[in-house]
Amino acid sequence: MDHQPKFFENLSGAGKAIAVLTSGGDAQGMNAAVRAVVRMGIYVNAKVYFIYEGYQGMVDGGDNIVEVSWESVSSILQVGGTVIGSARCKSFRTREGRLQAACNLVQRGITNLCVIGGDGSLTGANLFREEWSGLLEELAQKGKIDAEAVKKYAYLNIVGMVGSIDNDFCGTDMTIGTDSALHRIIEVVDAIMTTAQSHQRTFVLEVMGRHCGYLALVSALACGADWVFIPEYPPEEGWEDSMCVKLSENRARKKRLNIIIVAEGAIDCHNKPITSEKVKDLVVQRLGFDTRVTILGHVQRGGTPSAFDRILASRMGVEAVLALLEATPDTPACVVSLSGNQAVRLPLMECVQMTQEVQKAMDEGRFLEAVRLRGRSFENNLNTYKLLSHKKPDAELPKSNFNVAVLNVGAPAAGMNAAVRAAVRVGMTEGHKIFAVIDGFEGFARGKIKEISWGDVGGWTGQGGSILGTKRTLPAKYLEKIADQMRTNNINALMVIGGFEAYLGLLELSAAREKYDEFCVPMVMVPATVSNNVPGSDFSIGADTALNTITDTCDRIKQSASGTKRRVFIIETMGGYCGYLANMGALAAGADAAYIFEEQFDIRELQANVEHLTEKMKTSIQRGLVLRNENCNENYTTDFIYQLYSEEGKGVFDCRKNVLGHMQQGGAPSPFDRNFGTKISAKAMQWISKKLKETYRKGKVFANTDDSVCLLGMRRRNLVFQPVAELKSETDFVHRIPKEQWWLKLRPLMKILAKYKTSYDVSDSGQLEHVAMLPKEAETGAI
Length: 783
Description:
transferase, glycolysis, seven-stranded mixed beta sheet, 26 strands
């Protein structure tokens, strides 16, 4: 779809007043959304107001509604909760309350509202909008406003952003706060696992989610829990027996711990609650296992927002301001949300109705319908969990007589082990024998290959790095030896988990098919690299973990810079020639600039950045943060930029530099990477099974077409298999990056939020979609 770019410069907010409020339960990332609304609003010359304490502040007026400046939202990006406060408000539920709120807004000329909250808060906002003209007329009759004001402020525009850690809002893949809540849960589970293993204990963990099991389900997937209870999918009759059998089987297999996750709203098929205490008592009585309960409670709402939530909230905040500027009296109230990797606008009430439909289906016992209404992403999570957590008895497994080899190639990336685990378990469920290759193609050539079983990969999801071992070596110089190994072990399919080397490796293997029949088998690549530089996929496993490492480090550095005042830090990130980590890290950490290879810069730009920072030091925000991708320019090195800034900033600010290095490859994988790795790898293995059936002729597998060597990638809203041969034209092989990269569109966002004048192509936004049409698996943006 070729369209003329549409730039927001044509949208002016002059003469408009926008107010932002947070309402309902707090969620990490709300502050990032508030910051983006304020800065984008000021950027387009609108007046922007805070409404403190949610709807209560709107009703009370006075000091609760204040105009804000650019600096008002400095240093809030990394703070959890909401700095403008949130409150449950009874008076806004009455017409008198709303009348008072309307009066307070009109007095300040505010007719644009940005509401960040859950479905209750957004429904309230919509009712307020529908009553608006009636409220103004009533105010005029009472003499509180004049007739002129009724005409001038005739309609109210409303845009919502969903801030809720439960991810319980239909129409949006991920609500603001969900990813951060998963971070908190996974941190706790990882910590509990070490103590549970020491004592052979069973732990029952209760997580939030009164009406929605998303947090419970995804954290169960991400830590490989033995059992999970969620409101949308109650266990079958007699679950007590099945659960106890499963737990005792695991113990018999020498598994030293059991983890059971319970959503606080979990129910059985008769709609009776299943509590964590009830589960604990059952395990103790039936099995006599040492069992403990941990209720996570408000820990899940706390802490600093994850990189994903900051970027999501910043994108949504900017999109919300654009939606308000473009709104007309006929535009329905909308929510801005994320579908896959794309910002979309949806009619608010359609989303609310669908969210209520889920609850209704659950109340009426239509549980399969409830799961379907939650969307394809939720359904996929559930199916993947069921596939990976319960091993069928050997007698029930199909026998395919196929052997599939799994290997890691390239540099280590967090989440690789989760991908290997999913591949092994799904492969076994499909009836294949799975072989693990140690140390990439080099290990393959040396015959470091062994059969791997279900139990061997237990507990792998939370492990960082690559347990199988990985090497950057390409297969070209070992072709004969690898072919020998494939023949000796009768390997019928290959699954390669890795980065750019894995992609090059598959190209080399498919080119060698003419000479070696052994390579005429289905091969699939799952992208895993911190650099996120693999063509054919918007995301790769490991990039989210690295981004969180960068963001955490930048937070600490900013804190140090704020303490010393007038200090600028220059931080070098990894990524090869791909600027993803530098650019997205800058957006998530609130940096002043990010130097990347994809956007060439010269000495004039460096000079302009120094001047920009000099101006900034005159304000109350006396610190600077600059990110530089390691290969952005061979002459403007980190040292060069550091020396230039030091010299040019003399007397105004001093400078420090920091090279983050290999810490970006380490650490426990983030919930996003565990889940993305698990789901994408499971899907890749299912593709292998399908291809094996298609290419099995006369007692052997023979696959020599382009579509039998594929890369599975996330593209905008879908997971797609793409022949590696077709991706060649999209690849810059010299710099090892895709020729086109989606995230470059977000670059102006970072600049706007750092107070640079820039152009921002908004062609992709602006179309109001309908909920039913959304291909709801945008399999992740969402995890």
